[in-house]
Amino acid sequence: MTKEEKRKNKWLELLRFTICGVIAALTDYIVAQFIVFAFNNSIDRAYIIAISTAIGFIVSVIVNYLISTFWVFQNVADKEKTKTPKFIMWFILLSIGGLLLSIGAMEICNLISEFSLNISVTSDSLMNLIKESGWGFLGSVIFWAYIISFGIKTLIGLIYNYFTRKYILYKAPKEENLSILK
After folding, report:
1. Which of 31, 79, 124, 132 has its CB 3.0 to 4.6 Å from that of 56, i.e. a possible disulfide?
2. Domain limits at 143?
3. pLDDT band with cut points at 50, 70 and 90 for residue 174
C-alpha cells in the first residue's frame, strides 16, 4: 500500500480515530479521577465532581484536537483551515455536543443501574472504591456497572465525534466526498 493509499484508506482512518478516541477518553478519565482523588476531602463533593469533569474534558479536547489534526484525518481538503481559530471553535462546540450526549448516556445508564441493581454508578469515585476495597474492587458490582456504563457512554461519544469530525470538520477533497454517494 502506497503512502497515498494509506492517507485515503477509510479503515486506517477509522483505526487512527479509534486510537485517538481511546487516548482522549483515558486522558479524560485519568485527569478527572486524579483531581477527585487529590481534592476529595478539601472541597465539597459536588464541586469537585464538576471541576474534575470540566478539567478532564478540557484536557481531553486539547489532546483530541491535536491528534485528530496532525495524525487521524490525513485526507483533508484544506489542511491549513484545520488550524484556524474558527475551526478550533467549531471543534470545541461539536465536542461539547458530544460531551452532552455522553453525559445523557451516562445518566441513562445510571438510571438503569439504580432501577435494576439499586446502585448508582455516578455517586462515588472509583479511586475511593479502590482505596476502600484494595484489589477487592474487581469483584464489586458497582465497579463493573461503572465500567460498562463508561464504555457505553464512550462508544456513543466516539460515534458522534467520528461523524461530526469526518463529515463536518475534516472533509475529504470533493471528488472523494462524491464517491461516498456512489
Report:
1. 31
2. 3-172
3. confident
